# Entry
Amino acid sequence: MSLLSLRWLFRRAFRRAVYVPRPWRALGRLRLGSVIVGKAYVTDGDGIRVSRQEIRFSGLDAPEWDQPAKRQNGDWFAHGQQVKSALIGKIGGRLVHVEIEGYDRFGRALGIVTCDGQDIGEWLVREGHAIAAYGKRYRHVEREAKRARRGMWAHDVNIDPRTWRHRQ
# Structure
């Protein structure tokens, strides 16, 4: 078992044993259509924290932190870590605008994230870092990424993030 696997197992067991409240989740719900402006702190491939509010990108799903993928040369790697790094490079610490569209079952705000006028969710899907999972907003961009074999579409083995979560 690799060191990465052991760390993941320990973290997962510890999280279940001890509940640590997250202060940004305790904030009141924002109205639909409201806009948050602030620096983006990337939490994973499809989530950020802005102004102490946890935000999930609306209309897409990205690989989980420990989700593997296989390159064409046969090497396996942690795909979710690669996606998070790409997102940090794109918006980490930069000023973003988030339009709130709703809330997920965990109480996290779902929103459209823009930086310098660019829809970052669309960028994630176009670069093959995420799939257009919920709704039709990014379907045309996903088809473009598949045709161009960008990001996850260039890998030999790639697992849909929803399937990966279900298996785990």
